[in-house]
Amino acid sequence: MRIDQLSVQNFKKFATQTFLLHPHFTLLVGENGSGKTSVLDALAVSMGVWLVETPDTSLQNSRRNILPTEIRLEPSVKGDRIQFQEKLPVLVQATGQIGDQQDVTWVRQIKAGGKRTTNNDAKAALDIIGDIYRRDAAGESIICPVLAYYGAGRAWLPSNQRLPAEVKSNGPARRWAAFYDCFNERIRFDELRTWFHRETTAAGNRGGRMRPGFEVVRRAVMGCVPNADRLWFDPDREQIVLSIAGHAQPFDNLSAGQRMMLALVADIAPPGLRGAAFGLRQSLDTVGAFLGPTIATLLMMLWANDFRAVFWAACLPAGLCVLLLVFGVKEPERSASRQAINPISRAALASLGRSYWWVVGLGAIFTLARFSEAFLILRAEQIGIPMALVPLVMVAMNLYIEENPPFITELTIMQAELPA
After folding, report:
1. How many Cβ atoms are within 10 Å of 124's Cβ, its own excluded?
2. Which among 14, 237, 259, 372 is least buried, having the fewest CB atoms inside 10 angstroms?
3. What does the pLDDT look like over 26-61, one tens digit per residue?
4. How far apart are CA 188 and CA 180, in angstroms?
5. Rounded to whole angstroms, how far apart are CA atoms 240 and 193?
6. What is the C-alpha separation between 197 and 240, in angstroms, rounded?
7. CB 380 within 8 A of CB 390
8. Interhelix angle for 269-302 vs 392-402, to 10°?
9. pLDDT at residue 70, rounded to an integer
């Protein structure tokens, strides 16, 4: 699913407004009260079309309709006071892709004189979604979207909203449980604890081996919580325990920021693994930058500065990497419903704005100050460093770079997390 355009009328603070969304990533920037959260709420309403006709009875209370508090109020002066009048109709219209269908438009609204959200103008979207549900029930392998909403109130809502009564299932785990309460922006600490408890219980039936889902969550938390080295569930205290730099702390003893980070990361674990994979790639790059010149130095000393022999030796790992790419790496299957989009296009570049190009220009000027590492090697030879030890200059340079600006690594990882 992808939403390309969102239009609202009489929704919260907006009388009428249309938003064009980037197919990969959209960032909303604005002052407090400018309507950023209102846009997120409207997107949640538009995504709620997936649960108008629920595929499972457990999702009946997980629907996302237009709320009475989201009807725009227009102030007017009556005598010595200001009164507010509801403005109808309230309309949320979205255009985008659902399944393999492009340019689908659907409207959800509260009509003039009405009180409930109607979906009469969302029939095309509902038919596509209904067909997806029917094909899944017939046993066809169907990929459905991940529906999740994290609003601006996620930090304070846990303290003043009660958890819904837990519904215990007597049957096997249901696929559609992933859609349960997916449009509720609260961080559900108690539900997270319950999930950890169930995973620990399930491990007892698997000879102590945790299920893959738990391993995904554990690795995501380890990669995103600074200095975290272990995560488990303590059945005696009935709490999640996180070890940070070797010091184990029950969940309740963690700071508010650490608790929210753990809860958010655990809920969106699969995307979090992208950062871990990128971090592994960066680590291997650093290891190679250290080991390569070190081995070259040893070979130079062993082979009496025979450059050609050292270069031929360097070709061996390169050739092995090529063979690994050809025979050992398989591209993941891509969904046929996902439209391939060229991220470098004239329209995309034009949308970046003048501020972006100012930053790029300044970065290009600063980049001119970086000289080639080859000059270091030439200078080392010029001041009389033995030929065999010259590659160690590259080792020293890489160690220096790794010990310097951490914000560069942070920025690089943030860029790697953007959807491709």
Report:
1. 13
2. 372
3. 888 888 778 888 999 999 999 999 999 999 888 888
4. 12
5. 6
6. 8
7. yes
8. 160
9. 92
Residue 296 buriedness (CB in 10 A; 0-12 / 13-18 / 19+): buried
DSSP SS3 for 398: helix
pLDDT tens, position by position, 345-389: 776 677 777 887 888 888 888 777 665 666 777 777 788 888 788
**414 pLDDT exceeds 60?**
no
Pairing of strands 2-11, 14-20: antiparallel
Pairing assessment for the beta strands 101-110 and 2-11 based on DSSP bridges: unpaired
pLDDT tens digit sequence for 301-318: 888 888 788 889 889 888
| Residue written as token pair 């953007």 | 418
Helical (H) or strand (E) element with 123: helix 123-137
| Distance (Å, whole) CA 130 – CA 144 | 12
Indicate the residue type of 328. G
Burial zone of 390 (CB within 10 Å; 0-12 exposed, 13-18 middle, 19+ buried) = buried
Name residue, tokens 């009660």.
162
